[in-house]
TrEMBL record:
Keyword vocabulary terms for this entry: Membrane, Transmembrane, Transmembrane helix
Gene Ontology CC annotations of this record: cytoplasm
UniProt xrefs under InterPro entries: C57A10.07/YOR238W
Species in which this protein is naturally found: Kwoniella bestiolae CBS 10118
Keyword Transmembrane helix found: yes
Region feature (Disordered): 1-24
Name this protein carries in UniProt: Cytoplasmic protein
Length: 405
């Protein structure tokens, strides 16, 4: 045999391998011993091994299928009785029927008591965070030193962040039924502290004395005094990208008010208007007519680079992956969670479990050269049930852009 030829399988099998020492010949075997002996002869043994392997494989397949089927139906649709049936014993003297129905663990739900006026809020004003402010001094909010910034954010962007916060508060003052939510997680690597962008924005708003506790007198038709501004400014501390800014601030609105918003106003970068309006809002199936975007850009003579960057690194990737669950967007999120934070919204918003886990396959679209050319092109919408759009009629919403190319 030439040395470069591999030995043939038959040459291996010809070598006598002994799995068991041969049994002594015995003609007085009981029937069970006979069966055993038959099985133990070499070819039968192989058959037995194959049979056992197949048995293992098929049972594992069945278990897996069972798991998949269960997880796509019942596991992600917890009934409101999830916690009632498993763990309501012992809480009986504390809980209310609505807490029992909430589907939220009673150990958490029984720590929550809301001012009844929160349930009248219906307007979410969201300011997405872009960086972390570590300062204390109101005089220096417009200087880079007190901020944790990416190199490209050092050309005056912090002034824009401060404007976003100020404008968010102005919108809040205009509507006594609004809740202002600063949104953004602890996205920066050490040596940045594990401080969420949202808390730093909230700190900044207080440093500028924008959110006073001054009582507000009721307007016509209101029987009670509205909640003061400081009580209507909350933080959403986990979002890792703009899609999560919108989704998680809706979930946070539910935590604070015990209901979902009917109107949403986002105050952010002008160049991101199309991303929020045509993609994120559409992904969440929130009605277009109840959604407002207020865009404020950096104060620069030429923003064309900003718009080109937004098209390439923001709009197009989110058009192809509405929830950002594929690269490159998923990779960005990996880098933005250096402190290994787990958000609480699966627990507080069990009705949104399917939406949180929604990960449609990558879409492909015809490439266009500027954001303007995507006017009227809407991203894919979540097809499942969402509480803010429960009465949605088929065809109300453009599920796909005009072109599905
Ligand atoms: C949209 O706003 C209108 C008017 O404020 C309101 O009646 C309606 O319920 C809102 N739609 C949703 C889905 O919340």
């Amino acid at each position: 045999m030439p040395s470069n030829m591999l030995p043939l399988p038959s040459s291996t099998s010809k070598r006598n391998r002994t799995y068991f020492p041969s049994l002594p010949t015995n003609h007085n075997l009981s029937s069970s011993q006979q069966v055993l002996q038959t099985l133990r002869s070499r070819t039968r043994l192989t058959n037995l091994a194959v049979f056992l392997l197949l048995l293992c494989l098929s049972s594992s397949l069945i278990l897996n299928l069972n798991y998949l089927l269960l997880s796509s139906s019942s596991t992600f649709r917890p009934s409101s009785s999830t916690y009632r049936t498993t763990s309501s014993k012992g809480w009986d003297d504390l809980i209310t029927p609505s807490q029992l129905r909430s589907g939220i663990p009673l150990s958490i739900e029984t720590t929550i008591e809301r001012d009844p006026r929160y349930s009248e809020l219906n307007h979410l004003i969201m300011v997405p965070g872009h960086a972390i402010w570590l300062g204390h001094d109101a005089d220096k909010v417009n200087e880079n030193d007190d901020w944790i910034l990416e190199p490209m954010q050092k050309g005056g962007s912090v002034r824009t962040y401060v404007k976003h916060i100020q404008r968010g508060v102005e919108e809040l003052k205009r509507d006594n039924n609004a809740l202002l939510i600063f949104s953004g997680g602890a996205t920066r690597l050490p040596p940045s502290p594990p401080l969420p962008e949202a808390i730093s924005y909230h700190n900044l708003a207080h440093a500028l004395d924008l959110l006073p506790s001054t009582p507000i007198s009721p307007s016509d038709g209101e029987s009670k005094a509205p909640l003061s501004l400081n009580l209507r400014a909350a933080t959403e501390e986990y979002a890792l990208d703009s899609y999560e800014n919108l989704l998680f601030s809706i979930a946070r609105f539910k935590e604070v008010t015990d209901r979902y918003p009917e109107r949403i106003t986002v105050v952010g970068y002008g160049m991101k208007e199309r991303r929020f309006t045509n993609l994120h809002r559409s992904a969440l199936a929130f009605p277009l007519q109840n959604f407002t975007y207020i865009g404020i850009n950096d104060d620069l003579p030429d923003l064309s680079k900003h718009y080109a960057g937004e098209l390439k690194f923001g709009f197009k990737p989110f058009l192809n992956s509405p929830t950002g669950c594929h690269p490159p967007l998923s990779t960005k999120k990996l880098l933005r969670n250096p402190y290994i934070k787990y958000h609480p919204y699966h627990t507080s918003n069990p009705e949104l479990l399917e939406l949180f886990e929604w990960c449609p396959p990558l879409q492909s679209h015809r490439e266009r050269d500027s954001l303007d050319e995507y006017e009227g092109v809407y991203g894919m919408s979540f097809g499942g049930w969402v509480p803010w759009n429960a009465g949605r009629m088929e065809g109300d919403e453009v599920t796909w852009g005009r072109e599905r190319d």
